[in-house]
Amino acid sequence: MRSTGIVRRMDELGRVVIPKELRRTMRIKEGEEIEVIQKDDTLILKKYSAVSEMLDFQAEYASSIYRTTGYTAIITDTDKIVAISGDLLKRAIGSPIDERLQEIIGLRRTEILKDREIKPFFEVGCEGVKGQVIVPIMVRGDIMGAVILYSKKEPNDTLVKTAETGAHFLGLRL
Predict the structure, then answer these.
(1) Where are any strands of DSSP class E within 21-162?
(2) Which comes out higher in pLDDT, residue 97 or 147?
(3) What is the pLDDT of residue 161?
(4) Mean pLDDT of all residues in the chain?
(5) Which end of the chain is more exposed for a tag (fewer CB within 10 A), N or C?
(6) Is 0.90 surpassed by the pTM of this model?
(7) Contact, 76 vs 143, CB < 8 A?
(8) Could you tell me the CATH number of the domain that includes residue 79?
(9) Rounded CA gap, 79 and 26, in Å?
């Protein structure tokens, strides 16, 4: 932990304002949840991710998709990769997602990208990928993350339905 040097006064309702620069740096948007953690005499504010809370489950789910379909599976929260399977590198877990992917997820619909439209969203490559499906994980109208599937074949109904089923299922678990 490092000090920011910023001091804020608590108001009569117990509220403290998080400075705009810190909100921008941490990608905290209005309405997002913040987890409050107490450690000895210190309070820690942490951006809350319901998707990240289920890391073991996410990893098993992504692995199952890969084993049964051969599709590379990536599960994200709204900021970073939380689970990955298949041909992509495990070291990508925790990598931030880029603004293009955040915009696509923000559309709140299934996006199907084909061969030439596919550009890597992460530090890992997409060599040989012919199809990509991105489906937001939604909980009560809020975007919690996304299920992304890569295929070495042209996108088809199975790829789309697998991604949509995964996103719906994970949304029910959150």
Answers:
(1) 34-39, 42-47, 72-76, 81-84, 111-114, 131-139, 142-151
(2) 147
(3) 95
(4) 84
(5) N
(6) no
(7) no
(8) 3.30.450.40
(9) 9
Per the listing, tokens 């990508």 go with: 92
62 CB neighbour count, 10 Å cutoff: 25
Domain match, 117 and 168 both: yes
Q: Report the number of secondary-structure helices (H) and strands (E) in the chain.
A: 4, 7
Burial class (CB in 10 A: 0-12, 13-18, 19+), 131: buried
> Two tokens at 39?
């450690």
Q: Which residues contact 71 (CB under 8 A, 6 or more apart)?
A: 65, 86, 149, 150, 151, 159, 162
d(CA 148, CA 163): 7
Looking up tokens 């029910």, which residue turns up? 172
Query: Residue 1's domain spans which residues?
Result: 1-48
Are 127 and 163 within one domain?
Answer: yes
